[in-house]
Specification:
This protein is an alpha+beta fold. The protein has 17 helices and eight strands. The N and C termini lie far apart (63 Å). The C terminus is likely disordered.
Length: 378
Amino acid sequence: MTGDFRDTIRTAAKALGFDVCRFASASEPWSAGERLAHFVEAGRHGEMGWMETTLERRSHPTAMWDGARTAIVLGLNYGPGHDPLPEMADTRAGYISVYARGDDYHEVIKGRLKTLAGQVAARTGQDVKVFVDTAPLMEKPLAQRAGLGWQGKHTNLLSRDYGNWLFLGVILSAADIEPDAPEAEHCGSCTACLDACPTQAFPAPFQLDARRCLSYLTIEFAGPWPVEFRKATGNRIYGCDDCLAVCPWNKFASEAHEGRVKAREAFVSPQLADLVVLNDAAFRALFSKSPVKRIGRDRFVRNVLYAIGNSRDVALIPSVERLLTDRAPVVRGAAIWALSCLVEPAAYQALTDRHLLTEEDASVRDEWTRPATAGIVG
């Protein structure tokens, strides 16, 4: 199946709201599986155990579905239309990654993909399967093979038309459809994304150590953070956009290309004072239909407390103190660290004397016995 068929599917994809639709072979060999294996072998996946357990299935599209012949790769622009990084100047507000400011992209894309997949199946008479970052399929290598963009030195996909702001969805088809040309890498000598990383999470260009990545720590990591990364997070409370937002290719993602997934006003610079008091019900209500909801209230409030520790906002001390008796150990521990940054040494010692003797959780006791930051962070 060649040009006319592909044009028909591209037109249907555009009508469904996708910004780009291209085709790639799903059956030809590639090296992406080998690179992923090295990543896991080095332990750079951290606590994302699912990457290890699904490694063989992730190695190639046909390892998951041996009938796959063609990948139809769809891109949906979610770009903010501006540089979001200056928002972090307000340290009393939390920074939520651009991709998570609207409705959950899995839900936004899934229905459209299923509709388009049904049209592909009807026209080809062949089976199809739909993927939106919820199954062991490596979308980014497929997107590069299809020509949507290339994986930059930060390992994310970037596009000459949409910069770093594309949600990806994939339809695998058992039909043989003529592929589009792949995209070459266009990073050149630029290292802006690597230089911007607050935690030096890139051991080398095109390599990521997720254990050092603030997106991993704020979203995937469940426990108390290593201390070395707590100040580095600043006020980032869900995800991190630094390596994406500094990329020079974003200049081509102009206002005319502002994303189709609109941000909720409540998720742009939300006040830390409002977030630190969230209980489970209030958290779930605020983040209904948002990807943030998936990490749960405890992990989210932990992130907020680390941001408060960096905020200099002593007015938040009473709200933080109330969390010293929270039911969740990870919240209690993060509250201790925040107070160690905000209160004076004598007051912090008084809190230690009051709470340490009755604290039964070992990780929280470790926080109390850690040397205090000794006053407001500098």
